[in-house]
């Protein structure tokens, strides 16, 4: 299944523009989630632009690095940021394809996110603080169970849309959404979306799995690994974290609800659609982010050894999705 | 590339399966009853779809009866009993098979029943093809829940899931049994739930637990 043969200058510019937009907008999504969460807990909460202020503040701050740490500790924030930003290149954001798609598919995106996580794990172990090791071991346990769920979900999606290439998937999905809206609610995709939602909560460390707001030793997973970071390194890691959230939300929205995305054909004949589609897409991502924030308010943090229950749910849901495809 | 066609049969069976998994993944007594209520609503919708596809009006009555008895009366009775029982913990503490394993095994049971039914070459229409494997998987999941859970209430819910599976099986395969038999089955189920509710209350009074594993240990003392 070939992607539309459309590799002009405009296409490359569009690809780079949408990646930059995704990276730039990701702290805003984190800000909106924080605001909604505060609102649903009857607090006022900080401004939705607070993550940008935090990033700016951290950029200006002095950085303290333990003299016991090795080069891994210093290089990890850059690897995490670059790997996540590279993964963002392969995500069709508001155009249904990206010119970089010829270089990698959905599995590469997962691989890059995995690389970022691997180096975070190493950095947690590197400084030899008790918290880092604790966070790394918890993260390793969780990620080894998330991985099969992710892969079976990708199988269910790519079987339905004929390929693991993100551009192919999103193009097929948006074509299906235009030609016959009913095809979007195939039973295999219903199960895949349940599984994908659980995966998003787990991957981005949301509340049933991990509590991003506390520094309490009982609850923290991701925070424990990056506890030793400060200044610019912390800014990079936090930005990468919100970027990961934005990538996964964009994937969820574009694969399972691809209405209003600009296709390659529309890009050739400029019109209102190109202007509206980013707004539609950001709106849809905000809606999912609000949903995530409400879920976070409603559930309590689960005991660490109950977390595999939820992931088992994701695995079995995606497994049934694959079974339903073969009916 | 061929997309899966929009078909209401497959989507409704997917929704029914999702509600069934609600019983498998939850631990609390009331959670099972809520999940069972949603399952009964989905089953009633599925029955109405069968009635619409086959065009037999009697099945609409069966759907309405399902909604009235299984989605409203039975959960109400069991919820009343659950609130009446005086127990400290109303959750499934340690089932014979852990929750996460039972979720995975249930998924495998679903896959198994779908693949097994594909092997059977019966002359069938779309309704049978969509709902026969679904009813078998409901049956297997209910049986599995009855076997691996310790709490008597969970076993009652498992029995009710089996019954839902059987109801779907007969309705899908025969396009509706005669109405008098249908009503007989519903009365049967209702009386069964009343009796098991009485048993649950007696059991919690006498043994202070709903754990069926603890019933055996009392023989020694």
Work out the helicity level of chain A. 55-70%
Oligomeric state of shown chains: heterodimer
Distance between the termini of chain A: 23 Å
Taken in chain order, the helices and strands of chain A follow as: HHHHHHHHHHHH
Largest beta sheet of chain B, briefly?
none
Count of individual helical segments of chain B: 8
- Shape annotation of chain B: globular
Biggest interface goes to: A-B, 31 and 26 residues
Quote the beta fraction of chain B.
Answer: under 5%
Mean pLDDT figure of chain A: 86
Q: What is the CA-based Rg of chain A, rounded?
A: 20 Å
How many strands, which pairing sense, and closed or not: the largest β-sheet of chain A? none
- Tell me the number of strands of chain A: 0
What's the end-to-end separation of chain B, in Å?
68 Å
How big is the Rg of chain B?
Answer: 18 Å
Question: In terms of per-residue confidence, which ranges of chain B show pLDDT below 50 for 5 or more consecutive residues?
Answer: 1-5
Question: What order do the helices and strands come in, and which of them pair?
Answer:
The complex is a heterodimer of chains A (327) and B (221).
Chain A: H1 9-40, H2 50-60, H3 71-89, H4 106-126, H5 130-161, H6 166-179, H7 187-203, H8 222-225, H9 231-256, H10 264-268, H11 272-298, H12 307-325
Chain B: H1 8-25, H2 29-54, H3 58-84, H4 99-119, H5 126-148, H6 152-174, H7 179-207, H8 212-217
List key phrases describing it.
heterodimer; A: 327 residues; 12 helices; 69% helix; B: 221 residues; mainly alpha; disordered N terminus
What's a quick, concise take on this entry?
The complex is a heterodimer of chains A (327) and B (221). Chain A is mainly alpha-helical and 327 residues long.
Structural notes for this entry:
The complex is a heterodimer of chains A (327) and B (221). Chain A has twelve helices and no strands. By secondary structure, chain A is an all-alpha fold. Chain A has one domain (9-325). The longest helix of chain A is centred in the first third of the chain and has 32 residues, at 9-40. The relative contact order of chain A is 0.17. Mean pLDDT of chain A is 86; it is low at 1-5. Residues 1-5 of chain B have low confidence and may be disordered. Chain B is mostly helical. Chain B has one domain (8-217). Chain B is built from eight helices and no strands. At the A-B interface, helix 7 and helix 12 of A face helix 1 and helix 4 of B.
